[in-house]
Design brief:
about 20% helix, disordered N terminus, globular, about 90 residues, three-stranded antiparallel beta sheet, 2 helices
């Protein structure tokens, strides 16, 4: 498995795409400075990759949504991978 990526990259679009394509994510660690999240296969099993970010939008998103199990309607500005957004 690769080492975690670090930096001030906003992971929210990547997390939403991952979910839209059937994958799941789980929050591994969250502090005021950094978050680490595991990207897992669609069956919720094997971890495929681990990402880290210190981007404020990512930290706020993961504080509210620590895993991929939420309806699109709960995330106000959700953009699906097909571009339809939360409203369909």
């Amino acid at each position: 498995m690769d080492e975690p990526e670090s930096g001030a990259v906003d992971l929210v679009p990547a997390l939403l795409r991952w979910r839209d394509f059937g994958g799941v994510w789980r929050l591994i660690a969250l502090s005021e400075q950094e978050a680490s999240v595991a990207l897992c296969r669609c069956d919720g099993g094997e971890e495929v990759e681990r990402l880290s970010s210190s981007h404020p939008a990512t930290l706020a998103f993961l504080a509210e949504f620590p895993d991929s199990e939420f309806p699109n309607s709960e995330f106000p500005n959700s953009e699906r991978a097909d571009g339809t957004g939360a409203g369909g």
